[in-house]
Amino acid sequence: MKVIHKIIISLCISLILFSCDESVLDLKPLDSVSEVDVFNDEALLQAYVNATYSGIYHMHEANYLGTVGYEDLCFFKKTNADGFDTYLEGRIDETNGEGVSRGRWSRCYGYIRHINSYFEKTESSSISETTLESMDAEMHFMRAYYYFELMKWYGKIPLVKQRYELEDKDVRLPRSPLDEVVAFIVEDLDKVINSSLAVNTTPARASKGAAMAMKGRVLLYAASKLFNPNNDQAKWSAAATANKAVMDLAEYPLADDYGKMFNTSSYLDPEVIFAKEYNKTISQGQWSGANTLLLPNGFEGWQNATPTQTFVDMFDMKDGQRPFLSDGSVNPSSGYDPHDPYVNRDPRMDAIVFYNGMPFKDRNVEYWIQYEDDGDGSFEGRTPLPNSEQGKDTRYGNTGHEYSHTGYAWRKHTDESLSVDYAGVPLVYTPDVLYRKAEFYLNYAETQIALGNEAEARTAINVIRGRTGVELPEITYTGGELLEAYRRERAIELSFEDHRFHDIRRWEIAEDVMGKPKKGVWIEKLSTGDLVYNYNRVAEDSKLHVWDNKMYWMPIPQSEMTTAEGEWQQNPGY
């Protein structure tokens, strides 16, 4: 809330260099452009609008990989990276919470102030009403985006609906109840839905479709246990209606190639509704370094975050059966072979996870180690065979310091056709998908489970499982098994898309799935050449991961609490 407005004005003016033609630049020197100029010149104002997209959070921002490192199904290496160790070790408090949330409080309120200024200043603008209507819709969409970010992390928040000067102390506004926050976000989104914007424009810009998608997700969150402790069924019904509307949009067909949607540079699948695109002309020119951050170390990647064995075990067999029974033993009828565990699995696995033996570039991924004596795949107390070939993607490979701590790596978001880059030069421009069609089948399924309409839920889930390129058999589960199947399907389909961290919190299951050691696999190559898989591997440092129920909400920064002078109550536990 304390962001100095002139800095943002300067940012938007500087964007003219990238988004305006020479005739605009000839109008007057940049250092002479005033606020009056910005709000009365179409090109300058468009640059101002474009600047609001710069604040969108994305998966590869500052090497942090979004929220995947905070999830139960991913191991993030202990690196002392700002926020990750603080969160995973349970040391979060009001003095360091902004590091955990990547500055969401200050950043989001800074952009909200920027947007509120737009609405105030354009009331007397000389720009045509038709042009302003389109820009107004974009600004309502982006204000909803920033408020939704705040709502997800903090719950009750102050609703700042107009521009305040610093001396006005807008931080003294009360924290609005969740229902009011949701209503205000939906009000902004409805203005976009009822505007002249097209249903489907470029996925990097606001559209009716994108507003409908955000509304669906907002209302799903609002109906969930963390936001709806009394399980108000009316909220589930509202969420069902909103998500069904997106599900029915013909403008966004489901992708027929799951891997291509995420693993191809500069490609935006028709399924994508809204995305963070890496494009200078629309103020989205930030670096996406997925290959560097995610590839196995033998391919010169860092493997900052790696999937766990728990996640890999979620994938069904290709015939739709679960590889394991409820007691954790192998399902004898499934065809699952613990000595060859990755064959005949859900086809999405190859697009999401790097595993031992997976073909990539000019060789297969190698997560195996040879020891001095043949054993059972255990690691503790054993000495690697000296002067021998070792798996190229292990700690004993070419660059062992970047080895995987779980025996897996994320394939999703990487591009096989491109190299890594240590110099910071943009090499990977794979867009970050923020909203896509498949989510809304799953969102709708969740609402139907909550409303007791299990057949409707199964139908929606089976559309996702049965689409081209996946083609898994239909599920027939009921009751608690259906809910478990739904959550597995969501974890797989929407993996590494900034969902799981929020899902386990809004379902209030974080206390059950977090704070446990993260498991992976050890793979030993015997003298015979055979491989032995040991699934009891515990990733180093994961024993330090703890959970405290206060972490369902982030703390309001101490500086804001101090400025509020006792008028706000801190989130519970802080």
Automatic annotation (TrEMBL):
- What does the entry list under GO cellular component? cell outer membrane
Report the domain of life of the source organism.
Bacteria
Tell me which positions the record assigns to the signal sequence: none
> Where is region (Disordered) located?
378-399
Q: Kindly list the places in or outside the cell where this protein is found, as annotated in its UniProt entry.
A: Cell outer membrane
Domain RagB/SusD, chain residue ranges per copy: 270-574
Pfam families in the record: SusD-like_3, SusD_RagB
Signal as UniProt keyword:
yes
- Quote the Gene3D superfamilies the UniProt record gives: 1.25.40.390
The SusD-like N-terminal domain sits at 25-220
Which protein family is it in? Answer: Belongs to the SusD family.
Q: What is this protein called?
A: RagB/SusD family nutrient uptake outer membrane protein
